[in-house]
Write a structure and sequence with these properties.
Layout (H helix, E strand, L loop, with lengths): L2 H22 L1 H7 L24 H8 L5 E6 L2 E6 L2 H10 L2 E2 L6 H4 L8 H11 L5 H21 L1 H6 L2 E3 L1 H17 L7 H23 L6 H10 L3 H28 L12 H11 L6 H32 L1 H12 L10 H6 L2 H13 L6 E4 L4 E2 L5 E2 L4 E4 L1 H5 L18 H6 L18 H18 E4 L10 E3 L3 E3 L4 E6 L3 H8 L1
Helix pairs in contact: 7-9, 7-20, 9-14, 10-12, 10-14, 12-13, 12-14, 14-17, 14-20
Amino acid sequence: MNFIQISACISVIVILLSYIRKLKNKRFYKLLEQFPSHPTYPLIGNAHMFFGSMDDILPKLEKIMKLNDRVVHWFGPIPCLFLKKHEDIAMTYNLSSDRDLLGTPDDWLGVGILTSKYEEWKMSRKMFSPAFSSNMLLKYAEVIEKHSLKFVDNLKSAANSGEEIDVFNCLTRLSMDTIMGTLFGDSIETDGKMREKFCFAAHDAIQYPIKRLQYPWLLSHRLNRIFLHIIGKINTIHDLQYYPTTILKKTIKNFQNVRRDSNTPDEVDTSNTMIDVLVRYWFKNSSNFTETRMRDEVLHIIAAAVETSSMSTSFTVFMLALHQDVQQKAFDEVSKLVTDDGTFTPNDVINNMPYLDQCINETIRLYSPVAAMPRRMHKDITLNDNAIIPANTLVLGLIQFANWDPDVYKNPEKFDPQNFSKEAEEARPKTSRLNFGYGPRSCIGAKYAMLSNKMLMALILRNYHLSTSVKEFTKEHLKMDLSTQSKIGYPVKFTRRRARSSLIMEKN
């Protein structure tokens, strides 16, 4: 048999298997017929609509969702229900329990808090909860401030040159340094090359799932594994997993030594980093987690935090540079809270900068760091108009589209921090608040993310005036995969403000 004949035979077999599957699940497919769909083709479904450049995914999604708020899209033989209204997304997020990333990078990140099944996720959530307590956030604030101050100091060269820079790469490095500092501690000794390899591998791990979404044959675990070998990414996966494994082993060994030398090891909590909290929990509940699972949990936190943090901070700096009136108002708020040493108390950052809060929340609404989030329905869900989403349906909530809903926001594509004033938030449905997800599996690190972003923005505004050569920024300048990004980068010029003493005198 030649290649064409073999291909034809495989196609026939796949089509027959798909037909048999539909016969066995008549009710499931019958209920999916309630929702509109675009024409499909054998083997690929209508995944061809996403073929091509990553820069074009946003307009392709807009085309798919142009006439309908709910659309069934076929990734090969796998149906996925796209939703773009906040009430539909909130209902499915609230009543579903399992996340399913469709292209879940199991080979990369393993199974952790982002992708685990509901019962396993509950254990993960319970383990991470103490790591994001108010007490631990205050400890993280010191690390966040340290790295943010270093970043602000490093901006002097850009300010002295008078040149405009794209802030994304340096903010990504800052996000990685800050997260690694709060997670592992700044004092831990590690190989610099090993850490650098890890950073590159983490970036690949975050970006890879969208490739699997574009090419349905990669949804097969075996074919995906072969593909990873072909493109030489297997060693990259090793680099990704080796670094946290090494640090985890050191932390476990240190904790064992403390337990051995202490008379009351379980009564005194001296945790200063996130890994300390996780290891402490693990020792108390060792039957629930393996060392590999602990490593995967750490990888999930890093992957999620670095991606979302670097995107949100880059857009926030860029938006403040683009909107001078907003920047001035935020600067005035920050200036009133500066301490005698030129910094801020964590309490002021958390509780006393409401307008800066609004600026960050509006940036996240307008350019969502998590543009879409899949969920797997574990039971039938009846929507407000009595349409039924059958159990086991994969649902993709298009958070970015919900955040641009003209029925919720008068000028949805305009940057307006007043959208998050107390009055505006109270006037909107609670289901429209999707910046950090919705329902039981909403972002556990939301307070950490806001603290980190606000601390950085306050220190930047405290020291620099921001401007940009960009005159207008619209939807045409955006691209989207798992996050919403800028096609033109994030160009910002930093100009140093007056000496600290003058602002301190103003405050006094």
